[in-house]
Design brief:
The protein has about 130 residues and is an all-alpha fold. It contains 6 helices and no strands. The protein is flat, with a radius of gyration of 23 Å.
């Protein structure tokens, strides 16, 4: 019986698809601009140099993971924990490949955060 009903097409899906395609095209263009930016190129170059020493690269990633958890934790001792982590990895943090990578990463992420702020400025979205 359902099969006999004439199919109705929801044109809102068509227009929603067109808008999403525009978002995707804009997103792909933005992706290319990021990959062609000086900050991204410096980040990739620094990462490739660092990855030549697998043990050092793994230690940097451990530092980054733990630092991330400290920064986004809700405890009272974040400052103390960050200082302890810095002390623990101080021998590594002063090495040129490590500091070059961390600085390049910070610059790239700062630009991406700023870009995200511009993209979402004046957009009224409730999200959790």
């Amino acid at each position: 019986m359902e099969e006999d009903k004439e199919k109705s097409y929801d044109t809102s899906n068509y227009f929603r698809g067109m808008i999403m395609n525009e978002f995707l095209i804009g997103g792909k263009e933005l992706n290319e601009r990021i990959k062609n930016s000086e900050e991204y190129k410096q980040y990739i170059a620094a990462k490739n140099i660092l990855k030549q020493d697998e043990e050092l690269y793994n230690r940097v990633n451990e530092f980054r993971r733990r630092n991330y958890h400290i920064q986004y934790a809700t405890g009272e001792n974040q400052y103390d924990e960050a200082m302890q982590l810095t002390k623990e990895f101080s021998d590594m943090l002063h090495l040129t490949p490590v500091s070059s990578f961390l600085v390049a990463e910070a610059k790239l992420f700062k630009n991406i955060r700023e870009m995200f702020s511009v993209i979402t400025e004046d957009i009224d979205i409730d999200y959790i």
